[in-house]
Amino acid sequence: MVWLLEKGLTEKAVLKELESKLREDFTYKSGRILGSMCSEAHRFSRLVYTRNLEKNLGDPGLFPGSWKIEEEAVRMMGSLVSNPDAYGHIVSGGSEANTIAMWVARKISGKSGGDVIVPASAHFSLDKASDLLGLNLVKVRLNERFQVDVEAVREAVTSRTVAIVGAAGSTDLGVVDPIDELSELALSRNIYMHVDAAFGGFVLPLLTELGYETPRFDFSLKGVCSVTMDPHKMGLAPIPSGGILFRDSSMLKAVGKTVSYMSGGECQLETITGTRPGASALAAWAVMKLLGRRGYREVVKRCMKLTLKLAGEVEAIDELGVPVQPTMNIVGIKSDGIDIGEVAGELRSRGWALSLFPKHIRIVVMPHVKPKHVDRFVKDLREIAGNLRA
User: Fold this and answer.
1) What is the 8-class DSSP label of residue 148?
2) Sheet strand arrangement including 361-364
3) For the whole model, what pTM was predicted?
4) In a domain, 5, yes or no
5) Are 76 and 288 within 8 A, CB to CB?
6) How far apart are CA 245 and CA 90, in angstroms?
7) Interval 217-260: pLDDT, tens
């Protein structure tokens, strides 16, 4: 049992105990974290974050400068997804962002207990959001490319439909759904359309600029009402730094609450949490200002080059392969001849932190992953596959 001590310890003693307890944690520097969509925050964003821990975006009257910086951060993100006039907030992460989007969709529809149509591969946050909001989640089948089947979405639409959701970077394989077709469907039926680009929002636009062929997924499509994109993933901002962007302010105003007792005066709050860390928004703003599009392009370029190298190495191993060629810096590893769960177990026993799905292993090639880490991983993967075949 742990008790709060009557007399506190010295700083040295606390730090020593903390260091000892944290030895159990994986580190990004080790290169062994291969299953996470987060990475080590940029050094400059960490500096800005720690200097602004007292900022509270839940009381904008006290911190008007921080509030304005958050607006600038949202618009910089919006410029990546074809809407520099986007309106929204830096929130705790993709889960909160997706929940806010569904909250707005329900309010705008005027329906209670309506349906939300999502791909079978949708992030689990949409299950949580539907449960919290009293919505019915309708999961539809995928096509042979692991994208949502648009015809299945069309068949699922009824008078109860509140929203259609597509992914621009699915959780399991980083696949982009046919957002252009979903957008047209949503427009034709006057249905709210949300895009979960929590991961892809800071990847796909840069891949396009680098000359890769990437599908449209953003506000350039008229049916898209909102986009989730997280700075604390490929944006290299500290956790927690999620992002929810809307086409215009009127949508988010639908869920706004006027709070009169705040120290800075009456204000309109539009997020799930009241108190919000301004440090997150300021750090996200700072790293975007520092890197610019060119800096992010270089990050994405390095990750994608390494991703394609890894995919090629996997395909060269007997019994293993990739379910689909990478759209972005995510690689799936499948096997038709050996148990993929056993492969994942052996890799974990050798110290690799990865993600296991029912039919494949997921590797996310984040900025902390270097060529030497991929080489070591492939060596272990090849040995394990050979042992399991024997």
Assistant:
1) B
2) 320-321, 330-335, 361-364, 355-356
3) 0.96
4) no
5) yes
6) 9
7) 999 999 999 999 999 999 999 999 999 999 999 999 899 999 99
